[in-house]
Amino acid sequence: MKFTATQIAGILEGEVEGNPQTAVHKLSKIEEGEKGSLTFLANPKYTPYIYSTKASITIVNKDFVPEQKLSTTLIKVDDAYKSFSKLLEYYNQVKNNKVGIENPSYISETAEYGEGFYLGAFSYLGDNVKIGKNVKVYPNVYIGDNVSIGDNVMVFAGAKIYSESIIGDNCVIHSGAIIGADGFGFTPDENGEYSKVPQTGNVILEDNVDVGAGTTIDRATLGSTILRKGVKLDNQIQIAHNVEIGEHTAIAAQTGIAGSTKIGKNCLIGGQVGIVGHITIGDRVKVQAQSGIGRNVKDDEVLQGSPAINYGDFNKSYVHFKNLPKIINRINDLEKRSDSDTDKQ
What we know:
The structure is a single chain. By secondary structure, the chain is α/β, with parallel strands linked by helices. The protein has 3 domains: 3-95, Udp-n-acetylmuramoylalanyl-d-glutamate--2,6- Diaminopimelate Ligase, Chain: A, domain 1; 100-313, 3 Solenoid (UDP N-Acetylglucosamine Acyltransferase, domain 1), CATH 2.160.10.10; 318-344. 17% of the residues lie in helices and 29% in strands. The strands form 7 sheets. A 10-stranded parallel β-sheet has the order 9-12-15-18-21-26-29-32-35-38, with no helix packed on it. Strand 39 (302-305) and strand 40 form a beta hairpin. The mean pLDDT is 93.
């Protein structure tokens, strides 16, 4: 897929300085630019590379004035970084704009889908599935009975969406994600054997939710496991049954959240965080990576450690922890001196 400088400037509302017919077919870092590639300059630290880059086109800010001769065609915009991000988004839309049904695939006679639908090979749509407009379902995806999916949703290869799940508009579900598997519900009897508790609820993803690769979101025992609008999940996260995550909360990789915990809005949770079940975490909470949360958390708290404590208290304590061997040696020396003084008496 090739684009000329003129076409790119039109998308970005920019101005071409150089050959308007210069064409590119790939992207590159400015320091690694090759002929036929497009790059950008936003950080002044990388300015020297613009004079040596072999990239065919470079997006720059309008106030950029070259001090040496350039071999790259410039596209001048108000904000080079934002414009490059916009171009990436446009490129993804063009690249992912597939339409049609590939074979072999299975579509139930009672399933419905809107215009602009794409279904990759070896995919499965169960009974009473309802799918909106411009939805792209890539190969090897399973969508169970009675699933509802909104408009402009992307479901990448190998994802599994269990029955009764509800997916809102503009969601992205990456490869290997599993939406709606059974929650971890078992009860022991007097012999120590476990009986499974039926998981009869579902999962609801509201609009604009992103689910990373390999992430699992369990269905509720009763009711719904709910991710509110704008939630962003990284790869390999475990969300247990009946969890609720508030609007625009972002969670990094390998975090695990136990059942029935409620997390508020606009929280930031680092990687490998462990959160126990049946607690409430307030709004705008920040949790540092590898922390363990075992209690209710108020709005705006910043936590670190396992079990997690206030971030400032953790840093103060860590100073003492690092010095602990020295402190112990000092205490031992004091005890020896004290014993020596006692012997002399």
